[in-house]
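Entry 14. Structure prediction run on the chain below.
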Amino acid sequence: MVSQKTIQYTLKVRLMIYHTLAQDFCTLVNEDQTSGHRQVMWSGKNNAVPTGLYLYRIVACDFVKSQKRMPVK
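Output returned:
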């Protein structure tokens, strides 16, 4: 009989917002997290942001994803 062992791990996750005309605008997440589904709200209202197109970039280990976002005012 094979004994089962739990393998625990965390991921270093970083979620950044960039303005198309500027560099790193703000960081929403920068912490170790366990596996699972997460969500974070960003409307631009919590930071006084200029109107325009923004990009978000999420990095976790070797995974990187970027997408466009336009905050609703």
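Strands lie at 11-19, 24-33, 54-60, 63-69.
Filed with the rest of this week's runs.
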